[in-house]
Write a structure and sequence with these properties.
255 residues, 2 domains, 13 helices, mainly alpha, 3 strands, Penicillin binding protein transpeptidase fold, single chain, elongated
Length: 255
């Protein structure tokens, strides 16, 4: 009896549980199917635990530190460099209409009419990127950019993109367009450690955002895609060309 007990104790732990043994045998017989099921379970759990409640709170509560801010702070720490954050939250009423118009025509021309996704731009982006064999053109809407800034990272893995789509759809259901814009204008990066239009206005033009000129608004909109590469207050070829194009688009739309 004692010898039998010792033999049982010496067996692998999963042999003492028939259900576990059957499960392991099932995995061995169907490794691809098992891997697919495991992947689906992971994806479902990721979806279930997305920050839905945080988005609902944004109806009345301003966003705190964003995922992008945390990422930049971590990157600076890794390189033993100081990280200084400049941000001043202002209401949408304090942002000039020229700034709103410039950013919309530059980043998301159909912002006021779509429900989070611009499918025409998405198709055009895929076709151009396929033709050039590289990520030559993006198609993220303002809502998608905001979701990415608030909760995700700058990585481009498929799972991150899938999360972005879900949260974009949810944000559009929970927040009005004006509220989405207000948060966007206060959290997006406009330079190294410069977040939001009020901080950007003071940093580049030494004035409050409410005092920005039409051209200054266009310049700020021009550097949104590459805020650490270009400066709004420098007459670089990129800034001059892109801000001129933004002003022309505004004029064409009667803005």
């Amino acid at each position: 009896m004692e010898e039998e007990t010792q033999q049982q104790e010496s067996r692998p732990i999963f042999h003492q549980y028939p259900s576990v043994t059957k499960f392991i045998q099932l995995i061995k017989r169907n490794p691809f199917k098992s891997l697919l099921i495991f992947f689906l379970i992971v994806v479902i759990l990721q979806i279930l635990f997305l920050p839905y409640n945080n988005i609902r709170q944004l109806r009345t509560k301003n966003a705190g530190e964003t995922a992008f801010m945390s990422e930049q702070a971590a990157n600076a720490k890794e390189r033993n460099r100081p990280f200084h954050k400049m941000q001043y939250w202002i209401s949408l009423r304090s942002i000039p209409q020229d700034a709103i118009n410039a950013v919309v025509v530059s980043e998301d021309g159909t912002f006021w009419s779509h429900h989070g996704f611009d499918w025409f731009e998405f198709r055009e982006s895929i076709e151009r990127n396929f033709e050039e064999g590289r990520a030559a053109r993006g198609a993220s809407t303002i809502t998608q950019q905001l979701v990415k800034n608030l909760y995700l990272s700058s990585s481009k893995n498929p799972l991150r993109k899938f999360k972005e789509w879900i949260l974009t759809w949810y944000m559009e259901q929970q927040l009005g367009k004006s509220r989405i814009l207000e948060i966007y204008f206060n959290v997006i990066e406009w330079g190294d450690g410069v977040y939001g239009i009020e901080a950007a206005s003071r940093y580049y033009f030494d004035k409050s955002a409410s005092s920005l000129s039409r051209e200054e608004c266009a310049r700020l909109a021009a550097i949104i895609p590459s805020p650490r590469k270009h400066r709004a207050d420098v007459d670089s070829k990129y800034v001059l060309r892109r801000s001129k194009l933004i002003l022309e688009r505004m004029e064409a739309r009667g803005m």
